[in-house]
Amino acid sequence: MVNYLTELLPSARDYASLKSHWHRDVLAGVTVGIVALPLALAFGITTGAGAQSGLITAIYAGFVAAIFGGSNYQVSGPTGAMTVVLVPIVSKYGVASLAPLGLLAGLIVMLMGISHLGGLINKVPWAVMEGFTLGIAIVIALQQLPSTLASKNVSGANTIATSWRTIKFAISAGVHWTSLAIVVLTLAVKFIYPHIAVQLHLKIHIPASFVAIFIASCVVGIFGIQSPLIGVLPRSLHMNSSLSASHIGIYALLVGGIQIALLASTESLLSARVADQMAHIHDPDHAYQPNRELFGQGLATIASSLVGGMPATGAIARTSVNIRSHAQSRLSAITHALFLLLVVLLLNPVISHIPTAALAAVLIGTSYRIAKPSNLKELLRTTKLDAITLLVTAAMVVIIGLIWAIALGTALYFVAKLLINQRSI
Fold first, then answer.
1. How confident is the model at residue 5, as a pLDDT?
2. In whole angstroms, what is the distance from residue 229 CA to residue 240 CA?
């Protein structure tokens, strides 16, 4: 029983390479922190909880998951997939619902880890996971319409219907061409800057999103362009959060908590699995521990939700940046959280001048990266079963939601595979 529980807890092995690689981990952590900053702000705003909530999530959840999680490379925080689930919930029940939902979801994820359910992720077909990822990318892009058009948020659970109503409202109120111009400028810098950096042989790596937001903010400030800004954020590391302040009902709480838990566990395990592949980890002794990962992610979500943050998951984009920055241990993920903490304490006045349209553009660019068009073309050229499963799963993510999409996509894949096998006999 003791061994059963201790495998879920931190150990000295987590930092075995610290003495020889700590400087690489610190540099990698700072790099990831620079990448995570605009994403944390943007995901917080998109969810409806606010930019400060996004930062709180990245700091608390990122720190706790780095220590208690089961991967040496995983970076956790607010993610686009989680906003897909949270946006309709916050729209209907308010920001106060995030605390009880996060607490319940975190407990469920921790119980999944204690019950050794982490291996279930390996049962999900890869075509389903790729379709899941593509669907998330589409929804993230559509969620940026209010900030892109400088329009009010239109409530609704269905992404397509909500997006259409947002466009209609923005047109009737008058198109905000300034915000659209900021989005175009930010996207142009985000995609052009890496090529310029290569041609100039820049030795210092500065993330394209950071450069794009910096230039867009300077243009808005220098020319006095009227556009919605983030505004001043409190320097506190917590927001008022009460489990009893929400008016969400028991049924909605249970359904929402289960949805968040399933998504948090699925995305975190997928990200950790991809991280090991990127880092070329094939030794079971060094590979991620799925049950400990669930336990740590559940604990991270609880910690974040109790101080005014949001439910968190492992973040594939930030984790991949961590590995490409030559991280060797979880010290890099810890450093990323501490870096964001310093940003909140020292750079608050700078953050307040960032246009929300620039953050929306960063997430649109991120959704493009998530969709991976070049890889998508290759995947669609594989078997018809994989291609159909991918497209159907992506469509269901957009139309009916993430969890149902995974369940129905997996069922479709195995039923179709069974029928194919029977015909070939």
1. 67
2. 23
